[in-house]
């Protein structure tokens, strides 16, 4: 089956169009002010409106409050990706919109937390754990040991994230069997600046898998 790919942290029409043209199944919009990829709600609405219906629009949040969610959902999101969220809060949000939970992974023990989200999420995104005190819980180009996922039974549909790029994504898919991959800084020329050539190369590499 074709591996799906999400290009996360898009902020411009040009990079959105590139992702769509090269076959991204999902695009991600970040709503987290400390991030270099943070979007205003009007910007997000313009991008979401431009993306075709077959491309899923995913809003990325760090434990958002209801006011933040209300404003972002009005931009036209298909699902939300939640970082640093509890199962109870994820379940409450899921009553309004499909939920992806980003699970921060460094060791095998971190994978066990996925089970707690079985009734609270629609998808688990296995992402690299960022260092204690880091400004961002994702989007830092860090990867975890992919072999940890070998023998792990994800309780939900899942995706692999963290430190992927055009050169390593095929190997990551081979090692983990990931049905879906997610990338942000691996297709950038600088933090928050997406690179159209890298987006195209990443999606071409995924399409060859
Ligand atoms: O990308 C951000 O700036 C961000 C900010 C706050 C929470 C999550 C964020 N990104 C999450 C993502 O979905 C990234 O695509 C994922 O962590 C992978 O990032 P990267 O290792 O840079 O490819």
From TrEMBL:
Keyword set, alphabetical order = Amino-acid biosynthesis, Aromatic amino acid biosynthesis, Isomerase, Tryptophan biosynthesis
Q: Which domain of life is it from?
A: Bacteria
Keyword match Isomerase = yes
One matching Pfam family, short form?
PRAI
Q: Please name the GO terms that the record assigns under molecular function.
A: phosphoribosylanthranilate isomerase activity
Q: What pathway does the UniProt record associate with this protein?
A: Amino-acid biosynthesis; L-tryptophan biosynthesis; L-tryptophan from chorismate: step 3/5
Q: List the InterPro entries.
A: Aldolase_TIM, PRAI_dom, RibuloseP-bd_barrel, TrpF_fam
EC number(s) recorded for this UniProt protein: 5.3.1.24
Q: Which residues form the N-(5'phosphoribosyl) anthranilate isomerase (PRAI) domain?
A: 5-205
Catalysis: reaction(s): N-(5-phospho-beta-D-ribosyl)anthranilate = 1-(2-carboxyphenylamino)-1-deoxy-D-ribulose 5-phosphate
Record-stated family? Belongs to the TrpF family.
UniProt-recorded name of the protein: N-(5'-phosphoribosyl)anthranilate isomerase
User: Organism, per UniProt?
Assistant: Sphingomonas agrestis
Gene name, per UniProt, is trpF
